[in-house]
Design goal:
mainly beta, 40% strand, 5-stranded antiparallel beta sheet, globular
């Protein structure tokens, strides 16, 4: 499972708790889409940006209309028939346009508010063509200003949608706002932390008229969220410190007239402002609890230690936004970051008014409109048709031991039987949520609503996992978080609708090479007591352990729903692909033919049925397939990454026809 990205990105994503808390949380029960009475003052619609999962190209935009009480989960995709891209960070409505900042894809998506149609996808690239990695957007008169991780602010003309200027600021800007004819840009330095440079601690002041940096104000280490005060002379910023778990977060005020800084004794990672009141979010790593308090900006004192007054529980607050038309406070709940999150609306007294459930993966930013759009779409029909292109059933799920086993990522809850696990795994696959296969040999078998045809010379299906590239490895090879799994296919020859016909391996790039060991067998032993590391022994004379770590403290890493005290897997083992570099482990990709090996957006995640071979290695001619099996193919402990474990979110039929 991928964890090391968190070391790099935590300082840039203010409330991302991915490896410290998420997998110990309970998955949420099924709920209806709307709970309570969604009514609002002077508000026609709201839009929720869901950033999706890093490097999975699945960001989405949800629209809810208060007039007809209808939610369109994948609003942008439904109208434009394509996704927003990878890891969307910011959303704003300005004039008659919607702006979406997509960080990893390095784009600014501009959408016509009235119709929902894409007007332009602005590429945020440097002169040499590399990504700027945009983060946040602010507006002033006819211009939009976008801060990017490459240390720049880009100016965009909101009429022509052309870039008409770029200026340099500090390191890895992670927030921007406008106040008193100036831009205030928080310089986090978060991407430099792992390299030893340390974080930045400044806010750049850019004169809008000249579009030049005129000052740098020291506010504290790793500044992030930054918001202009309602009084026109102040700016507020959250500084997040250098140590993730030390809790050195602080809330600071900048006087825009004097550049003086006031530090409050308030721990904050994210916040929202409504007039004189700020809503401050913080996460305590010692107690693994979160809190939201109300703070009076005029007096500098806490109003309520707990904003929520009616006992409503939120697992993982991920975004805080205030509706400017009503003053109601909207909080998004990301749960375990791998399932669809919810949006909860509270009045200013901290009482829940209504909630919108299952709106998308990792909802972060909400935008409100007092006008209604005029797009005419039927979201339910479109989503139902599109869902037929993806795997819809888990027939078998037998993971090997691993750090994510017996958590929601393995479709397990306390007391679950194997039948319960299969039902939950099916639900997660239908929702395109991550399922971990554990160490070597762990596997999953998936079925489809339609057969996948074999189109000669074309890719037939895509296996989506959570691999990503880290192109800064310096080796020239593609490396990052590859955790390769071997893929098998089967056709329902006997026509009984079950995966009981012959399986055929898809030849990957390493088939028949010295980089694979065929006939490999490994046996895992249940630990006693349960919270010990898991011992394994293979048929090559080797033995070792699936090691426990401090990030995942569930009762056992051995699948609790499996009654046997030993689990044996047979198959082909690929050579270890992860190596330590500069203090981090890098999982290098094999060229092609393996699951969770290349990012979902890359050709390397696509597969051809033509690659099928039988047990003797002879090619097999299949006109179509009905089932796919994926198996973790590497047996390696990769330090802070833990064991190499293939992950799957879904499989897409690339020849799907409605």
């Amino acid at each position: 499972m991928k964890r090391k990205l968190t070391y790099i990105f935590w300082f840039c994503l203010p409330i991302l708790l991915l490896f410290t808390a998420c997998d110990d949380m309970e998955d949420k029960p099924f709920t209806s889409d709307i709970a309570g009475d969604p009514t609002e003052t002077d508000t026609a619609e709201l839009y929720a940006l869901c950033e999706g999962l890093f490097n999975q190209n699945n960001s989405s935009l949800m629209r809810f209309s208060f007039g007809n009480q209808r939610m369109v989960r994948n609003y942008f995709n439904t109208i434009n028939h394509r996704g927003l891209g990878d890891t969307a960070n910011d959303l704003a409505i300005y004039g008659n346009k919607i702006y979406v900042i997509v960080n990893v894809s390095s784009t600014v998506e501009v959408i016509d508010f009235r119709t929902g149609n894409s007007l332009k996808q602005i590429q945020m690239l440097t002169e040499n063509g590399s990504s700027r990695e945009p983060r946040y957007i602010a507006f002033h008169k006819e211009k939009a200003y976008v801060c990017s991780y490459d240390g720049t602010v880009t100016r965009i003309d909101t009429t022509s949608l052309a870039i008409d200027g770029v200026t340099s600021v500090g390191r890895n800007p992670d927030g921007i706002c406008v106040q008193n004819e100036k831009l205030y840009v928080s310089n986090s330095g978060g991407l430099d932390y792992a390299s030893g440079l340390g974080v930045d601690n400044t806010v750049s002041v850019v004169d809008i008229a000249t579009f030049k940096e005129i000052n740098k104000i020291t506010v504290g280490p790793n500044p992030g969220k930054i918001v202009a005060g309602a009084d026109g002379t102040t700016v507020y910023v959250a500084t997040r410190g250098e140590d993730v778990e030390a809790g050195n977060y602080n809330f600071a005020k900048i006087d825009c007239l004097t550049n003086g800084v006031t530090h409050y004794n308030e721990k904050v990672q994210n916040f929202a402002i409504d007039g004189e009141i700020a809503y401050l979010y913080n996460y305590n790593y010692s107690t693994q609890t979160s809190s939201i308090k109300t703070f009076n900006l005029k007096t500098g004192k806490t109003v309520r230690e707990n904003f929520i007054t009616d006992g409503t529980s939120i697992d993982t607050p991920y975004g805080i936004n205030v509706n400017p038309y009503s003053g109601n406070v909207y909080i998004t709940n990301a749960y375990d970051y791998t399932i669809y999150g919810d949006l909860l609306c509270f009045n200013q007294q901290g009482q829940l008014q209504f909630r919108l459930n299952n709106i998308g993966l990792n909802p972060n930013t909400i935008a409100f409109s007092d006008k209604a759009s005029q797009s005419d779409i039927d979201d339910n029909t479109e989503e139902t048709e599109n869902s037929l292109a993806f795997a819809n059933k888990v027939w078998e799920y037998k993971p090997a031991p691993g750090q994510f086993i017996n958590t929601s990522t393995s479709a397990y809850k306390d007391g679950y039987t194997y039948e319960d696990v299969l039902k939950e795994a099916t639900r997660r696959i239908q929702q395109k949520s991550i399922i971990s296969l554990g160490g070597f040999g762990g596997y999953i078998v998936l079925g489809f609503p339609q057969s996948i045809p074999n189109i000669k010379g074309e890719y037939d299906f895509k296996v989506k996992g959570n691999a990503y590239y880290n192109l800064k490895t310096g080796t020239g090879k593609l490396g990052g978080s590859a955790e390769p799994g071997i893929v098998f296919v089967s056709k329902d020859v006997n026509g009984n609708g079950m995966p009981d016909d012959e399986w055929y391996e898809l030849k990957g790039s390493e088939y028949g090479k010295a980089t694979e060991t065929r006939g490999y067998e490994i046996t895992y032993h249940r630990p006693n007591p349960a919270n010990l590391k898991v011992f394994w022994k293979d048929n090559q004379g080797n033995e070792g352990y699936i090691f426990r770590n401090s990030f995942h403290n569930q009762e056992s890493y051995y699948p609790l729903w499996i009654e046997s005290d030993e689990i044996t897997f047979q198959g082909t083992r690929l050579k270890d692909n992860a190596v330590p570099e500069n203090g981090l482990w890098v999982g290098y990709c094999y060229p092609w033919g393996y699951a969770d090996n290349h990012p979902n957006s890359k050709e390397g995640s696509n597969f051809k049925i033509d690659w099928a071979v039988d047990s003797s290695g002879s090619p097999v001619d299949l006109d179509q397939i009905d089932f796919v099996k994926i198996m973790t193919a590497v047996n390696q402990n990769a330090g802070q990454m833990g064991e190499i474990s293939t992950e799957v979110t879904t499989i897409e039929n690339l020849h799907f026809k409605k």
